[in-house]
Design a protein that fits this description.
Chains A, B: Belongs to the gamma-glutamyl phosphate reductase family. The structure is a homodimer. By secondary structure, the first copy, chain A, is an alpha/beta fold. Chain A is built from 14 helices and 16 strands. Chain A has a 7-stranded parallel beta sheet with strand order 10-9-11-8-7-12-13. The first copy, chain A, has a 4-stranded parallel beta sheet with strand order 5-4-3-6, with helices on both faces. Chains A and B meet through helix 1, strand 2, helix 10, helix 14 and strand 13 of A and helix 1, strand 2, helix 10, helix 14 and strand 13 of B. Strand 16 of chain A pairs parallel with strand 13 of chain B.
Chain lengths: ~425, ~425
């Protein structure tokens, strides 16, 4: 009951602050971002001390090395935060722009104005730099934010929250425009995702388990993706050099990212020509290959893929390979087994490329480019709060515009409806 | 269990048909719309016979006169359906357009392609013409649809479904692109709103109770509005003639529509000047006036408003009137008590009008125009499936574009990520 009241209070404060944020001019929002950077710069030692407490507690609690690494706030990472804040200050303000303002026969002018969403709840895990990334994007897009970081980073996040509050106040904005939840009680998340009167949208960042749980229980819209089961389809009309480069880059540029290829589809007419060379590159990079029966016949190095492989996001140096009959077979496989994230065709054929673009039902569909490009920075959004594979609201990499909505504006001169 | 299986089958068929619909060319979709019109024209007598069965059963079951009127399929209403189908065929196809296709430093071109949502579930009450309206908008926007009409209209809806199926087939599209649920079992709704694997979005049309129930239980996004508590704010810098026209039209043009004004806000400095004349017009039109204390002092005809009045959608010839201190007070009242639907300021003052436009958090915000303009046709959308007061996805009147999403498209020439 106490936690419920605490979250309700945070929600009310956020709703109130969101009104001031929606009104805030671009100049004032940018000033707040630069103020926060200045506060962090000044508080370097305080931040590192707070982080040291988190690290010590994490070690005591037996966190594994990977988690401890993500938790650590080094000078380099603080510099990256500062750079991020300055970059967001430099981005165009998405709020207030009016588009498609046209006269109607009745005499009224009708257009659409871009407006903030209101209050955004962010739920994330150990990395404390997400506190600054998320807060800066929500601030720039005119939203109020409630942040819920991992319990293992609570000291670091509270220290960062103090810098944010000071930066907002110094710019004349309400410090409650960004609130970091002060308790590690897990019930806080349950409350936050079920108060639609105070929270307009939830952005969860973290493992699939966390995101599934939140999506299931939320009474508020959730901007999310669960899996990144991305495909490269090498068509029989592919340029072999492009196909090789793209297939290698899409898998091996980084293994743990959501836009990494997990399944390679190859047209049956080109498989014998391209697969042996490709396989030797993968093998030299220690990528384990799992293939369909036809693939096994061409690549002795491959082990047999099971039905489960086609639905698996490995996030590891493992690749599933399937030989398909034709384009239809490839599209059918992607739409059935993919996660609607990012899929590429490699082909020189106009008609087949065009069909792939139209018919693959994913948030990013590519021709002759690496799946690794599916990213807010690479797309020119300037920043990214996450990637959405849902069809409602933002889809694909979500930047500042994805944190806004639109409202209709009508300019009249006394018109009434006949 | 049987109904669950039935709905799962409908869902699977809809998902499959949605792929064909997403690929369908503009010409074929338009042909299907015109085919459906031709089928309805040919089946006039069959439709009227089916409708007569619904009417007879309705009378037996003691439906009230208003419901029976909405249920009836007259020749005039059939003509309106035909006209609607032809109009939708004439609208621009929202699907496939690519916007903002720009080069990035990496060499790739990134843009956004407009795509159908997939499968749309529509839940509505007695009027059988909604079957055609909803089906035609979903068809034109490249979606598959599952329609659930009122049980009192089941015979009429099945007869219309047969026309739709024939029209689709004759155009070479899958008849399962539009499926009308054949059972009146209420459990079908519960199933439909909880199968996100087959249904992408739900559009409920009907009373507030229905929509609240659906929103609460749905595991699928819902495009909706609950209330239309719309305001007109007459500023002290208002043109009196414009203010009078707009205040009268916004309330009395139609009483039962969601964009009708329910509360009139008047600046204290202009109240004595404008309210008596306005009140006499309202009174002559038999509109009951309920006022705040200050209003009561000016208008003896008004009865005392209670706290509840400010939060009530009357849908009737009743108007709440409140005298406010200033613009801030008006905006605060609207954002607190309104339903984020449609609100108008009447003012000649630039700065105050601009602030109202920016700060009122509603799906339609107007200057010097009647709230009654908040409508898909008046806004130039060509048609309307409903009005959304949510901030996620479509907001305000929802036309064809609101039934679509976007995906990123990337055109490359073999680029890989460095």
């Amino acid at each position: 009951m106490e936690i419920q009241q605490y979250m309700q209070t945070l929600g009310q404060q956020a709703r109130k602050a969101s009104r001031a944020m929606a009104r805030a001019t671009t100049g004032i929002k940018n000033q707040a971002l630069l103020n926060i950077a200045a506060q962090i710069e000044e508080s370097r030692e305080v931040l590192k001390q707070a982080n040291a407490k988190d690290m010590a507690r994490g070690e005591e609690n037996g966190l594994d090395a990977a988690l401890l690494d993500r938790l650590e706030l080094t000078d380099g990472r603080i510099d990256t935060m500062l750079e991020g804040l300055r970059q967001v200050a430099g981005l165009a303000d998405p709020v207030g722009g009016i588009t498609d303002l046209n006269y109607r026969p009745s005499g009224i002018q009708v257009g659409k104005m871009r407006v903030p969403l209101g209050v955004i709840g962010i739920i994330y895990e150990s990395r404390p730099n997400v506190t600054i990334e998320a807060a800066s994007l929500c601030l720039k897009s005119g939203n109020a934010t409630i942040l819920r970081g991992g319990s293992e980073a609570i000291e670091s996040n509270q220290a960062l929250a103090a810098c944010i509050a000071k930066g907002l106040e110094d710019a004349g904005l309400p410090s409650q425009a960004v609130q970091v939840i002060e308790t590690t009680d897990r019930a806080a998340v349950g409350e936050m995702i079920t108060m639609p009167e105070y929270v307009d949208v939830i952005v969860p960042r973290g493992g699939k388990g966390l995101i599934e749980r939140i999506s299931r229980d939320a009474k508020v819209p959730v901007i999310k993706h669960l899996d990144g089961i991305c495909h490269v389809y090498i068509d029989n009309d592919a340029d072999l050099a492009k196909a090789t480069n793209i297939a290698i880059n899409s898998k091996t540029h980084r293994y743990g990212t959501c836009n990494t290829m997990e399944t390679l589809l190859v047209h049956q007419d080109i498989a014998e020509k391209i697969l042996p060379d490709l396989a030797s590159v993968y093998t030299s990079l220690n990528v384990e290959l799992r293939g369909c029966e036809k693939t096994m016949a061409i690549l002795p190095v491959a082990i047999a893929a099971t039905a489960e492989d086609w639905d698996t996001e490995y996030l590891a140096p493992i690749l599933a390979i399937k030989i398909v009959d034709d384009l239809d077979h490839a599209i059918e496989h992607i739409n059935t087994h993919g996660s609607h994230h990012t899929d590429t065709i490699v082909s020189e054929n106009y008609t087949k490329s065009r069909r792939f673009l139209l018919e693959v039902d994913s948030s990013s569909v590519m021709i002759n480019a690496s799946t690794r490009f599916a990213d807010g920075f690479e797309y020119g959004l300037g920043a990214e709060i996450g990637i959405s594979t849902d069809k409602i609201h933002a889809r694909g990499p979500v930047g500042l515009e994805g944190l806004t909505s639109q409202k209709y504006v009508v300019l009249g001169d006394g018109e009434i409806r006949k």
